[in-house]
Amino acid sequence: MKAWVSGHRVLVGVIAIVLLVLGGGGYVAYIAVRQPAASEAAPAPKIGDVVYIDLDGGQDRVTTLRPDGQRIASGLRCQRFHRAGGTSVCLRLAGPGPTYEAAVLNADNSVVKTVPLPGIPSRARVSASGNIVAWTSFVTGDSYTVPGGFSTRAGFLDLRTGAVTDSIEHFDATVNNRPLKAADVNYWGITVAADDNTFYATLASGGLNWLVKGDLTAKTARSVRQNAECPSLSPDGTRVAYKKRPTPLDKWSLVVLDLRTNKEITLPETSGIDDQAVWLDESTLAFGAVKGEPRTAVYFVPADGSAPAKAEIHNAASPVSVK
User: Fold this and answer.
1) For residue range 182-233, what is the model confidence (pLDDT) as tens digits?
2) ∠ CA(264), CA(265), CA(270), 5° rounding?
3) 178 is in which domain, residue-wise?
4) Element of type H or E holding 126
5) 25: helix, coil or strand?
6) What's the CATH number where 111 sits?
7) How far apart are CA 52 and CA 247, in angstroms?
8) Count: domains in the chain
9) Which long-range contacts (CB under 8 A, 24 or more apart) does 300-307 make?
10) Is 17 exposed, middle or buried (0-12, 13-18, 19+ CB in 10 A)?
């Protein structure tokens, strides 16, 4: 997605990650070697807990926040994390190079499968049932990108069958009721509905992007509306939250689209978001952002726009509630 990448501020962060990884060989080796074995994870979180990645000290430990404020750090280190239906996914460094993988864990926090990733971890999601695990990576080397540029690769694992779809770029896409056959099609930010088949994602081509609704079995995707990135479907399936900006020069804000009325609400004090938000429950969203702080903090915000976003967990990323 050449046009999307150029001028896209995510690229700056990605390049910084690459420089950190390449320049800190000792750190890469340490993290890869110290990835916990299946039995080394902390006790499984309980309903009502919030799980997140603790960024303190650069260790990126998956940590559980109890309702009483107690924090329990695990030995699991991830760059992106998500959990639902007793299944967790940890996008992490896998070895020198560097290489990356999606580690899938069961309800006991035991690793049951690893899937190699083609590039730097970007987004991670697990469907409500725990059956579908999805991810997005930044990759280099696609023929249509500018020299040194990045594109994205979004794929998923169906735990019911064990089948891995490395990329959904081959899905039949329809934009504005016309088939899209462009070579620069990119997807990112998959979010899966309760039926474990319907999904939403961002599709980009020719410098434009769209919110698309798709079918994992039929391998199709159809545009819903333009200018919507990193969607997150509400638990009841009636709303989609995504980041949106008026022009490429503006900052993103978090927006909620009601699929029943086709009306959008821009949530206050969310300017600057560059994350795939998560629904903590039917009425609250959480996301990571750098807003007047040296490092990313996790913010909570009402999904109806009734109050501004508020920083709740400092030096943290990838929040998810345990349901």
Assistant:
1) 999 999 999 999 999 999 999 999 999 999 999 999 999 999 999 999 999 9
2) 130
3) 2-321
4) strand 120-126
5) helix
6) 2.120.10.30
7) 31
8) 1
9) 301/254, 301/267, 301/268, 301/269, 301/270, 302/267, 303/234, 303/239, 303/241, 303/256, 303/267, 303/279, 304/256, 304/265, 305/256, 305/265, 305/266, 305/267, 305/268, 307/268
10) middle
